[in-house]
Amino acid sequence: MKKVFLAxxxxxxxxxxxxxxxxxxxxxxxxxGAWKNTGATENSIGALEHAIKLGCYGxxxxxxxxxxxxxxxxHDHSIKGTHIEKTxxxxxxxxxxxxxxxxxxxxxxxxxxxxxxxxxxxxxxKPSSVNKERSLALATKCVELVKKMxxxxxxxxxxxxxxxxxxxxxxxxxAHVEYLKGDKxxxxxxxxxxxxxxYHFNVFKKNEDYIPAMRQKKLTxxxxxxxxxxxxxxxxxxxxxxxxxxxxELLLSISK
Length: 256
Ligand code: MG
Fold this sequence. Notes:
Blueprint: H1 2-21, E1 28-30, H2 45-54, E2 58-65, E3 71-73, E4 78-79, E5 82-83, H3 89-92, H4 106-113, E6 120-125, H5 132-148, E7 155-159, H6 162-171, E8 176-179, H7 186-192, E9 196-200, H8 201-206, H9 210-216, E10 220-224, H10 229-237, E11 242-245, H11 248-254
Parallel strand pairs: 1-2, 1-11, 2-6, 6-7, 7-8, 8-9, 9-10, 10-11
Antiparallel strand pairs: 2-3, 4-5
The chain binds magnesium ion (MG).
Residues 60, 62, 124 line the site of magnesium ion.
């Protein structure tokens, strides 16, 4: 009898532990975090924390490199007239976002994300506006920092630059890397050794075979940026793996 109780106890314990470790099982990736309905500024740590609180599968954000090679989270190449790539980090650290946060470094951002394991960090490496070398240097620095911050297991990479995707895959073969630009076929993605495609919704609408073709290859599909209810439902029906959206609350509610 004691043995039975022990078996049940161990079973429950492992179940609880597994549940505690496992990531959220839904298709929702909050585009630049959950900002639109929360008052957080896009790409702020606050927006990431809201996406985590909502229980999104992932929270996406964009990364650039300063003139002195420090990584910052921001969508555009510049903020309030200051060009990230042409400015030193000391100056960039003084910049405040709309919600009062400082312009986040990638290190601070990953640290906030590292406090949990359920929401994946979807790291977009922005191609440099200066040259290809800086794009590849940024890719290398992202992989190094993700490793240093011990968030490899919850971080995925995306980029519009195919060479950047290949570089990440070369440096971190176990990382999940999706290509964004939309100009490569499932066969080309598979041949390059990448893990998935994250394409604009029009690309998937024009190429209806892409979702089943990728699934057959055991590669993932992710669509951006889908915000209206009809389109969200269309892609849920097509059974795309992930939907990147500015409306994570709406998508969570209709995909249950
Ligand atoms: Mg992005």
